[in-house]
């Protein structure tokens, strides 16, 4: 069995020691301390409330390693959920639900690249996502892929081997506009060139 390395971080040492002790005997995980060189696959951050200090901790953990972050909080509401997700959290658990088996399940999901949200908050998160798409992104022609519809159109034609002049004629754009569209895409998504942009769009299933 492949073991997931886990680091537990809490403001109070009792919570940190308690969760570490609960996980340590389980064969699915290996708990690593802050003084160990092995980088963790998953970091558990335990807080009471999702305040500014907690958010700073989450951002710090995300900036200083490749570990996936799970937040365990005593209180979670809609706003907490959104702020935690914006900070890079992939799993959220209420402390009242944080049994050893539940934590192991969320850790396994995080290690596999999957997210976990309390069921009662998931529906409200989807409502907020839908509202964001309708009120902010749709009026600007942007989707959650990060690409506007005309950017996708241009990339499709690039993928088919069309040059700048042909794309401009096909879409009734100027050549300068086509070049600007490709420049915007590569710059915003930190891609190297138009070939890289096409590869990205294909990989993400956009074209």
Question: Nutshell version of this structure?
Answer:
With 207 residues, the protein is α/β, with parallel strands linked by helices.
Which helices and strands occur, and which strands form pairs?
Elements: E1 4-10, H1 13-23, E2 29-31, E3 42-47, H2 52-63, E4 68-73, H3 78-86, E5 89-94, H4 100-111, H5 119-137, H6 149-159, H7 164-171, H8 175-188, H9 194-203
Parallel strand pairs: 1-2, 1-3, 3-4, 4-5
Helix pairs in contact: 6-8, 6-9, 7-8
The DSSP helix count reads 9
Rg: 22 Å
The gross shape turns out to be elongated
In order across it, which strands form the biggest sheet?
A: 2-1-3-4-5
String of helices and strands: EHEEHEHEHHHHHH
Percent of residues in helical segments?
40-55%
Largest sheet properties: 5 strands, parallel
Question: How many strand segments?
Answer: 5
| Range of strand content | 5-15%
Mean pLDDT across the residues is: 83
Structure commentary:
The chain is of the alpha/beta class. It contains 9 helices and 5 strands; from the N terminus they run βαββαβαβαααααα. The protein has a 5-stranded parallel sheet with strand order 2-1-3-4-5, with helices on both faces. Strand 4 (68-73), helix 3 (78-86) and strand 5 (89-94) form a beta-alpha-beta unit. The longest helix has 19 residues, at 119-137. It starts with a strand and ends with a helix. The mean pLDDT is 83.
Pick out its properties.
207 residues, alpha/beta, five-stranded parallel beta sheet, elongated
